[in-house]
Batch of 2 targets.
Target 1
Amino acid sequence: MPVHFTVITTCRNAEGFIGRCIASVRTQSHRDWNMVVVADVPEDETVAAAERAAGGDPRIAVTATRQRKGSLRNHVESADLYAPHDSVLVFLDGDDRLSDPGALAAVAAEYERDPEVDVVWTRHVQTDGYIGCSGPMKPDVSPLDHYWCASHLRTFRKRLLWGMDREGFLDEDGNWWTSATDHPTMLQALLLARRSSFLDRVCCEYNVGAGTTNDLRATGKVAERIRAKLRRLYSGYKRRNVLFFVNGPRGGDRRFSSLEKRPPMGILGLMARLEARGHQVRLVDRWLNPEWWPEPETLDWAHAVGVYASTPNKTDAHYILGRLKEERFSGYVMAGGPHATLHPEDLEGQADCVCRGEADD
């Protein structure tokens, strides 16, 4: 499947650099991309310089914030707003540039080579000629315990953003991280990815002389705080197999029609969130087919079951929960939906967990 990139470029006072950054994207041999340039309350002519460099290209949007947000927040909010759901995100700072006109094509080839690759990063060179720290990761080491080697050029599928714990974007006081801002997204992407790939090719030039020089020691301390918080958030995280049931019209309230067949949008949205978090999901929709019951091997596959219960059709929800006990399902059983919200006591004792309200988080 062809790869579409959304290049997100955040900057502040980048009047002297943003033009070459945009030009490095416009001259890429891979043409399927869109780009958003976010100037964070600039004090110079960054916006005007960016608009000149864009040259009216409809794939490029240039905007400026009205309040200081910082690189991380601008990256995340711009991805939510401007990136199609099936695109690959590319984070490129405004004072850096793609040093290779075939960079995006090479990265796209990595994603196309293996459809399960969710993260790709490359080598980079600094403007002083030093080859940067990026490199391959050891397969038996968690990204949270691995030394930092996934810097520039960093890319991942947008759907991973849906699975990230957004508490990881905030420091201990609830403010967006303002240092080591590539760590909160990239480390979570590496954790959630089905597969990741390092491309041993210099694709990006990192401008070491632009803006304020980073205090590497201070940045390193912030990076460790970020890792510590992510370790807490992902403590016990494992990929699971989750089987969902939608209750059918069995024994339903006759005042409600059971003839209309509608997609279970709430459950499908929840399944998408779980897939983005690295889990495998399957669905048994008994509203579509009241006789549908999974094969024994499907129940053996599932680590957990989620049962959607609506009040007019609670009889079938009770049937599902009871049959799971009869068949000695050994995994974790969750009940949710409108009936669980209105009358949780009616489902207690039949499920390990009854979820009231929205279950996504």
Target 2
Amino acid sequence: MWRTVTITGTPAAAPPPMSQGYQLSVTTYTISGTELDVSKLRQNDRFIVKISGNVDDDARHRTIIDAPLPAGWEIETVTHDAGDYPFLGPLSKPSVEQAMDDRFIAAVDLGGGWPWLSDDSDSVDNPSNNKKSLASNAFAVAYIVRVVTPGTFSRPETVVQDMYRPTEMARTAGGSTVASPR
């Protein structure tokens, strides 16, 4: 006689943040550059979300960044050049990025030895380069968000993960956000 037991349910709390091979941080800024607490917002507020981090070694990593949006938020645009927002610092050039209705996803190649990342004009080691850039094992992406719907919403955690070594990953803490009507 075989017996199968299936248990379903909803977690009592969001999973805790973790770091296993990657470091990850999510920072939110007003459009003018001051840090912003997203737990209390107002409808039509606009702000910038910056996701940054690094991998702990110099090996090649095909890295996926997955940042689900809370309900009520909408991505207006992805920021590729920090020229308009110098407080963001240097930003990565993802090989793939998508600003979808419910999330932002980007793919970046980290670590040494990627032939298409050897352009000397963007190299950190190039002394004639006036543009600051990221180390080969670091990433930073940013996008502008607008709060479109008032209400109280769950804020999912952001995850970064190696596409071919899924045990190497990092996750931020989840939370909640309240958007008051205007």
